[in-house]
Amino acid sequence: MPELPEVETVRRGLAPVMEGARFTRVEARRGDLRWPLPRNFAKRVEGHSVIGLGRRAKYLLADLSSGEVLLMHLGMSGSFHVLNGQQDSPGDYYHARAKLAAHDHIVFHMSNGATITFNDPRRFGCMKLVAREKLYDEPLLRALGPEPLGNAFDAAMLARACHGKKTPLKSALLDQRVVAGLGNIYVCEALHRAGLSPRRRASTIATRTGAPNDHAARLVDGIRVVLHDAIKAGGSSLRDHRLTDGALGMFQHNFRVYDREGQACPTLGCKGIVRRIAQTGRSTFFCPACQR
């Protein structure tokens, strides 16, 4: 499932063709994705402009001139493709993609000539219309923790969230109520950069009073660094993730531990070997020598 860097990469690809443009026509080729589409979905979107395109955790938020917000989630296999109307012919990627045309479920035709297609073979994605004034009461958003790249996210905040938690540190970081947008890949990578074991108790990054210790500070730095690096690389393309122009994300070539079982730890001076263990049904990759 796409994590924060992949969703942010998609947002940056969509923003130039969505922001300031009007939906001239909307094709809803089926009535549902993960859940049924909102009633009169196409009619409620058509004719309105996108004031701004934001992101909250793994959700894309298109603020519409109608006063509603179009909330979009990629699910496990969803992707957006932008076809610029000014091009005489689509690129090679779009021709190859035509084999999956049956999975092109939503098509947005924009006033600037762009066509934006949402393709989702597994249909775990979703689209929802929410009144702007009720956005923060939206069940999909209201329980989310802080944005890890936001100014409010720091060691003190993370320590408070983990204070008293007996769960493994990795499990705590995957809890979207603790920090929003992180998933399996980037938690493994951040923990390695911080030199912290995924098996250590979450509460150990805080003092008895809930204040942050050095572990918390290192972890916040590790999270920020790996997310910034991943966004810069266009995210990670392991299965379904593509940029809006069809290109692959490249961060998978920079993994230190994720999917590197049996390889030498890349930390300078460390002689450890990357291991894989199972935690809460997911694979965890880490170096037992330098992650304590």
Mean pLDDT: 92
Give the structural class: alpha+beta
- CATH class group of the largest domain: Alpha Beta
Main β-sheet description: 4 strands, antiparallel
Strand order of the largest sheet: 1-6-7-5
Instruction: From the 3D structure, determine the CATH topology of the largest domain.
Output: N-terminal domain of MutM-like DNA repair proteins
The share of residues in helices is 10-25%
* The number of domains: 2
Proportion of residues in extended strands: 15-25%
Can you put this structure into words, describing what you see?
The protein is of the alpha+beta class and 292 residues long. It has helices at 4-18, 41-45, 92-97, 155-162, 169-174, 184-194, 214-232; strands at residues 23-28, 50-56, 59-64, 68-73, 79-83, 104-110, 115-119, 126-131, 275-279, 282-286. The chain folds into 2 domains: 4-137, MutM-like, N-terminal (N-terminal domain of MutM-like DNA repair proteins); 155-286, Helicase, Ruva Protein, domain 3 (Orthogonal Bundle), CATH 1.10.8. The chain is built from 7 helices and 10 strands. The model is unreliable at 86-99 (pLDDT under 50).
Keywords:
single chain, 292 residues, alpha+beta, N-terminal domain of MutM-like DNA repair proteins, Helicase, Ruva Protein, domain 3, 2 domains, 10 strands, 24% helix, globular
